[in-house]
Amino acid sequence: MPGTIVELRPASAFPHEERATLWNDAFSDYFAPSHFDAAGLAAFETMCDLDLDSSRVLVEDGRPVAFGMLGVRGARGWVGGMGVIPDARRRGHGVRMMMALADQARARKLETLGLEVLAQNTPAIALYTGLEYRTQRSLEVWEGTPEPGRVQSPVPARAIDLDDAAARIGEPVLAQAPWQRELEPLRRAMPDLAAVTAESGGASATAVYRANPERVSVVEIAARGADPNARTAAIDAVLASWIEAGPGRMLRLLNLPAGDEAGARLAAAGCAVSHRQLEMSLRLEA
Description:
The structure is a single chain. The longest helix is centred in the C-terminal third of the chain and has 18 residues, at 228-245. Helix content is 31%, strand content 36%. Helix 1 crosses helix 2 and helix 8 packs across helix 9 (261-268). It has a 12-stranded mixed beta sheet with strand order 1-2-3-4-5-12-6-11-10-9-8-7, with helices on both faces. The chain is an alpha+beta fold. It is elongated. It contains 9 helices and 12 strands. It has helices at residues 16-26, 38-47, 93-107, 122-130, 162-169, 171-174, 183-189, 228-245, 261-268, and strands at residues 6-10, 50-60, 63-73, 76-84, 112-118, 134-144, 157-160, 194-200, 203-211, 215-224, 250-257, 272-283. It has 2 domains: 6-110, Aminopeptidase (3-Layer(aba) Sandwich); 142-277, Aminopeptidase (3-Layer(aba) Sandwich), CATH 3.40.630.
């Protein structure tokens, strides 16, 4: 708009209360609304290693109208949230924000910049594709309240420590986890993480999770072994252990790769895919 003054400022220049309001306004009409209070946003930023000095808030004529959060781990970065408030859209702010985050990532000498976008958000997918992001894989959010008896297994599950769980799951699997479910950062942020494993016919299934009276949030679940039926029995034993320990609790697993065998067992337990996302990535050049 003629005469409009647009500035990009570090997110660290704004208090959490103001940025939480901006986040909530930007996602108020989204396919999957997201809401934070100031304390919740601060905890999310810490857990997800979001760099407030490299993240940006876009100010239009003195009013914050858009934001973009840059997460950093090693040489890899990701967009930990980006949005524009409804009455400031269709002015190019989304492109400005994404280009600013890419510039910050290059300044940090990162190699890649990733993001997730809901599969039905075709305007955003077109924006990211135009900025040379490429789809890496499809991810699914699984949710549901399983009923006792929906899955059964003749083998028991047992609690194990997190180091044992990480070794059983294996580095190749852990290295492919979406940034929201990376085990080591979550271990630092969540002291109440727990782990469980089950073995059946030479196969095993291991999971890391966080539980409270209302919900089991699964951080990782993976099965190993040559026999698919034995892997199924082991996964079912893990699921049954959660269901039996807390009937009526919701079960939630964020961003499971599409086609993962755990998805079929979650469906058998009474869960369903609530959202599908595309994981996209931009290769950065110096």
